[in-house]
Design a protein that fits this description.
CATH superfamily of the largest domain: Glycogen Phosphorylase B
CATH class of the largest domain: Alpha Beta
Strand content: 5-15%
Number of strands: 12
Order of helices and strands: EHEHEHEHEHEHHEHHEEHEHEEHHHHHH
Helix content: 40-55%
Structural class: alpha/beta
CATH topology of the largest domain: Rossmann fold
Strand order of the largest sheet: 2-1-3-4-5-6
Largest sheet: 6 strands, parallel
Radius of gyration: 22 Å
Number of helices: 17
Number of domains: 2
């Protein structure tokens, strides 16, 4: 019989950001309310942790968006270890339903025992095309959005002090994944990208990238009294030349942020948010911030309904007028008129915005563990054990490569990827964030008498 050392093993690819924001409150509920033991690690060497820990449950923030998640979930299923997957990108669109359900899982097999989606709307949409998944999908609400009811984020004063800037006006610009349309990143996911958008639309996106860049450049140049926070898309792989922020680094009134801060801190530290297309617009609404989008040529491409909640401007002049209007009367033109639309969007996308979606997941975990407690875990063979142990050792002992920037330019893809994995995951950083968020969760639970 295989000895189980931990109740819940949580694996993430990053030690900060979206996926971590999803799992931390769930781990809190598991530990503080359910009294379960938990362990958190990186998805890179996740199969090693499965072999070492033999958890009663594997918890992942998603099972389709990263090859490491897919591999570790598949491996856990092979060993008969129960798997619960959450959903990182849960704003399902019928035009992209196949890609939303399967992501980069080319097998198109749901290896996990259960996936929790954000909303009933998304679940019904999934069942419409995949009725055979009825027993595999539940609804949790958008867990990652709980943080807007629980945590305190960085204030404007702390933000500008941290980055040694002195501005009274601050605008956050959320980046879109334009870089996914170029080079290796495009080739890796070419089939699904073409299926969603088509060649003509991709051509339009590439043109829009340059046009958005010109508009942003002009806004930055002509508003020297405003600090612009350039928040890169979380999936951006350090090739800035393929983003809408190309060459904007040279201006004094900007700050570039990739993984150094989460989007909520960037939004809280600013007056309002601008984007080409971003689910972060909804995050801004939940933080009582206004938004507008810049779409220079077309607006009817496959996109989230979140875009319907913001005014859309095409030209520099319109954007400048909106900025002037905000700093004169406190309003972005046409934003207030969309208030009812935004309320409907929030309900359709994340189901509940009461900060308790992680509790819903916790209750599901409790039922899930009871249901699977008698499941027998299969032992791994020696070859597999040694293989994943070696991967773990390599990952553990090569952190030093992050000190050498030239490695990113070496034409050995695996070495570049290894360096990137180290840069986005550092366990001490995860634990520090966990301690910080647990303090906020203590207050949230005490005020609501949750136990």
């Amino acid at each position: 019989m295989v000895k189980r050392k931990v109740d819940v093993l949580s694996l993430t690819m990053m030690s900060t950001g979206r996926d971590v924001e999803i799992v931390i409150p769930i781990l809190y509920y598991c530990e503080k309310v359910l009294g379960l033991s938990t362990f958190s690690g990186s998805g890179v060497d996740g199969r090693y942790w499965l072999n070492k820990i033999n958890p009663k449950l594997l918890l992942v923030p998603n099972s389709v968006g990263d090859n490491n998640y897919i591999k570790v979930v598949k491996y856990a299923a092979k060993r008969n270890i129960p798997v619960l997957s959450l959903t990182s990108e849960g704003d399902f669109d019928e035009k992209k339903i196949h890609e939303m359900v399967w992501g980069i899982n080319k097998d198109k097999i749901m290896y996990e025992d259960l996936t929790l989606q954000w909303s009933e709307r998304s679940r019904k949409l999934t069942f419409k095309y995949y009725p055979e998944l009825t027993d595999k999908i539940g609804v949790s609400g958008g867990v990652g959005f709980d943080r807007y009811k629980i945590y305190k984020f960085m204030s404007r004063d702390k933000f500008i002090k941290k980055y040694k800037k002195d501005y009274k006006k601050i605008i956050c610009i959320a980046g879109w994944g334009f870089d996914q349309l170029f080079g290796d990143l495009f080739e890796m996911d070419k089939e699904s990208i073409l299926k969603i958008y088509g060649e003509e639309q991709i051509k339009n996106f590439k043109e829009d990238r340059l046009l958005v860049n010109k508009i942003l450049k002009k806004l930055i140049q002509n508003n020297k009294d405003i600090l612009f926070i350039l928040k890169y898309h979380p999936g951006m792989y350090k090739i800035k030349k393929n983003t809408e922020f190309v060459d904007l680094y040279k201006y004094n009134n900007i700050i570039e942020i990739q993984h150094e801060e989460n989007i909520a801190d960037c939004i809280c530290g600013s007056d309002f948010l601008i984007a080409y297309e971003s689910t972060s617009a909804m995050e801004a609404w939940l933080l009582d911030k206004q938004t507008f989008l810049i779409n220079p040529t077309i607006t009817n491409f496959p996109r989230s309904d979140i875009s319907k909640g913001s005014p859309i401007f095409k030209k520099y002049e319109e954007c400048q007028k909106a900025i002037d209007n905000f700093y004169t009367v406190g309003k972005i033109p046409w934003f207030e008129e969309k208030d009812e639309i935004r309320k409907e969007i929030i309900k359709n996308i994340i189901e509940w915005d009461d900060g308790k979606n992680h509790i819903r997941v916790g209750k599901i975990i409790k039922e899930f563990l009871e249901k699977t407690r008698n499941r027998k875990i299969k032992k791994t063979n020696l070859i597999n054990y040694l293989k994943h142990y070696i991967i773990h050792i390599i990952f553990e002992k090569t952190r030093f490569i992050t000190k050498y920037s030239f490695i990113s330019k070496i034409p050995i893809k695996k070495l570049r990827v290894l360096k990137y994995c180290h840069e986005i995951y550092y366990h001490n950083r995860f634990e520090a964030l966990k301690i910080k968020y647990y303090l906020y969760l203590d207050i949230f639970y005490d005020k609501r008498h949750i136990n």
